[in-house]
Amino acid sequence: MTVYFVSDIHLKPERPDLTRAFSYFLTETAQDASELFLLGDIFEAWIGDDAPIPGLDELFSQLKALSDKGCKVYFQHGNRDFLVGQTFVSGIGAELLPEEILIDLPCGPALIMHGDQLCTDDQEYMQFRAMVRDPQWQSAFKAKSLEERLAVARQLREASKERGAEKSEYITDVNTESVVKALNDNKCDLLIHGHTHRPAIHQITSAQGPSTRVVLGDWDEKGWYLKVDSSGYELISFDIAEA
User: Fold this and answer.
1) Total number of domains in the chain
2) In which family does this protein belong, per the annotation (predicted)?
């Protein structure tokens, strides 16, 4: 049993190198996968299942092919692709997961999430998150025309960049107390998440004793994935340009 985790690929038409690298990952690296977890921000933006990002059809077919050969594919929303819906997920043969869930791995149970919900020091972002995750807001957004949705998405991204430029790394990272609370609430000693673009394996202490927080990396100059099997887990990077 080999399980892979990726997040924060931020696929977009302006970065065909990321598309090629993810294609390489799917068709080469992950061919032995029994499970593949996509932990959010796989796409730079997603304004609805009726408006998929152009140029990614081959990737979608590769995900479906992986599913068809027996790999279970799971999708979890990130802060940029929270509007991915059941239509798209079903089309790639995947299952849509709740925003946090406890799963069983060869190394034991693990709590998985995108990770933005742990950035509780950034109160402005948490308010924004609550707004865009509200079903009523999402329904109203999806009811807009494609042009209107594109305009709103553009405004939200620009506002996000402006807010981010003014904030310290401390504010935009996870809150340690929130991490420990999440582990304690789930009686778990392993947390896997993305979002912060700070790939690392952190040793912490929870009510369960010595615990671990694995942070997946974002794909830019390097691609990142977590590989889990019976021998343990390994956070692996590779050069995007060489994929």
Assistant:
1) 1
2) Belongs to the LpxH family.
Tokens 């994935």 found at = 225
Sheet of 232-239: strand order equals 94-96, 72-75, 35-38, 3-6, 222-229, 232-239
What's the whole-model pTM score?
0.95
Q: Is 193 annotated as a binding residue?
A: no
Asked if the model's pLDDT at residue 163 lies above 90, the reply is no
Other CB atoms within 10 Å distance of the CB of residue 103? 16
The answer to whether 20 touches 56, Cβ cutoff 8 Å, is no
Was 79 annotated as part of a binding site?
yes
Amino acid at 35: E
Q: Assign residue 163 the CATH number of its domain.
A: 3.60.21.10
Calculate what percentage of the chain has a pLDDT beyond 70.
Answer: 96
| pLDDT tens track for 74-121 | 999 999 999 999 999 999 999 999 999 999 999 999 999 999 999 999
Q: Is 213 annotated as a binding residue?
A: no
Does residue 202 have a known ligand-binding role? Answer: no
167 appears as a binding residue in the annotation: yes
Question: What is the residue range of 147's domain?
Answer: 3-242
**How much is the pLDDT for 170?**
62
Task: Tell me the average pLDDT across 219-230.
Answer: 98
Residue 197 is labelled as binding a ligand: yes
